[in-house]
Amino acid sequence: MNTYIGDMPVRDMPVRDTPVRDIQEALVRAGFDPGPIDGVWGRATLAAVKAFQAREGLAVDGIVGPQTMAALQRVAGGKPLAQPLPWMTEATRLVNTRELAGPGSNPGILDWAERLDLAYAGDDIPWCGLFVGHCIGATLPGELLPNGLLLAQSWRRFGDATTPRRGAVMVFWRESRESGLGHVGFYVGESPSAYYVLGGNQGDSVFTIWMPRQRLLEARWPKTARSLLAVAGKVEMAQSGRMSEKRDLGCRRGYQLSFPVSICQYMTQSARNEYHGWPNVAGRFFS
Predict the structure, then answer these.
(1) How far apart are CA 269 and CA 83, in angstroms?
(2) Closest by alpha carbon to 171, among 206, 135, 220?
(3) What is the arrangement of strands in the sheet containing 216-221, beginning at the earlier edge strand?
(4) From CA 177, how far away is CA 97, in angstroms rounded?
(5) 137: Cβ contacts below 8 Å, ≥ 6 apart
(6) Least crowded by CB within 10 Å, which of 8, 38, 191, 263?
(7) Domain ranges of the chain
(8) What's the topology of domain 19-76?
(9) 105-134 pLDDT per residue, tens
């Protein structure tokens, strides 16, 4: 089943030149088959990383942490490799995926639930937690996902507590801190007053919004990717546009933002590499 971005299946989208693609090419030079050189962190790429780690006497976890990265760079040569966060690469790939208006559901969103073995009736049910679950489950198959992951606040029990940093799972309250309602997405950056969050079901699509800092409940990190903590730091950004309001956190009409060129100068090179290929649009409305 195809995942759709807008009206276009992923298979028909142009390939992005991401850090994952560079790692795939390095694995080929090192003598391993990561599958298609497509910038997607799939099962074949994961298997190739594990095979490389086994040959080099490294911990076989499928994570390209600092030791695996150094070994791959030494063996494969070529240009310096950027350190990817696989789940963020998958999240970025899915930008502009949106639910279908009216009856019916986006088959790609339903496929995420099927792959996670979740009972999910359709994309009129809030799917911010499903999006996060898909991105992590598809790229970190050994990671334990929280029970009830469709409920945003269930992600407070995920992984390890961390400080807000690139790729962290960010859990926010909605309506009130005591309501039990929430929203969950991935940290992209921050300003003094807000966090910039990539998530699903934001304006009925996968996109980015500014979330007020005071609504943050937890920042969490995958246990199986602890080796990547050191390369995932704080990203300071200039804020553009207004912050999401309470009604927007219910994942209906909201003001969505992606990276204008002017913002990129505030990001580290590794963060710019991670988000290369995002739509260059600022202040765009989605119904």
Answers:
(1) 11
(2) 220
(3) 160-161, 216-221, 169-173, 182-190, 194-199, 207-212
(4) 29
(5) 115, 116, 143, 145
(6) 8
(7) 19-76, 86-286
(8) Muramoyl-pentapeptide Carboxypeptidase; domain 1 (1.10.101)
(9) 999 999 999 999 999 999 999 999 999 999
